[in-house]
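Retro notes, structure queue

What went well: the backlog is down to a handful. What didn't: a couple of records were mislabeled last round, so from now on we paste the full input next to the output in the thread. Example, using DUF3105 domain-containing protein from Streptomyces alfalfae:
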Amino acid sequence: MGSADKSRNVSRKARIEEMRQAERARERRGRALTVTVSAIVVAALGVGGFFLFSRASDDSSDAKAGSKDWPAYKVNEDGEKVWGKLGRTHVAEKVDYPMSPPVGGDHDQVWMNCNGDVYDHELPEVNAVHSLEHGAVWVTYNDKADPADLKKLEAKVKATPYSLMSPVKDQKDPVMLTAWAHQRTVSGADDPKVGEFFSKYVQGKQTPEPGAACTNGLAK
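Corresponding output:
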């Protein structure tokens, strides 16, 4: 009888030890899992923090580029760039516009004449922007533009009140069309987007000061 009891005690101790070993193993696995999860969380927070910092840096760069007057633009389905609300303060100094040609923003109190006026020289941007505020469409080109296209565009501008045309040497594309807060590139004078742009934006809904004069401004 004593031998049997002793045997049962040994077996019970063995099972208890097995249970303790199993519990210690579970604890080790739990600790390992906790460490792994913690590492993942820390890494995720680090990556997230990086992107948040990068986004903040980008946002501050955008703000620095033009402050409150330069919201980010969107590009619609057919490639036209559209800006949000732009500043309209009259200023006496030069404005550092973040695009060429500019699409709006603070500007000089005197506008460029835009009653179908065609200029053969680059215009003061601060005056041309005031013309955009009055609802003008501004046709611009660089030295890569086709002379035949320029003749056709010149004729269209001369026949259209509230439009003007001038060279802009450092613009990205050969021919561009600009209205207040709207801008697009066209392939040439025969691009159907030319007529669409004029129809939509000459004294269009985007005009901050519809009906304001396009004469008696700066002529050259």
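Agreed that this is the format going forward. Reviewer comment attached to the example: Strands lie at 74-75, 81-82, 115-118, 137-141, 163-167, 175-179, 182-185.
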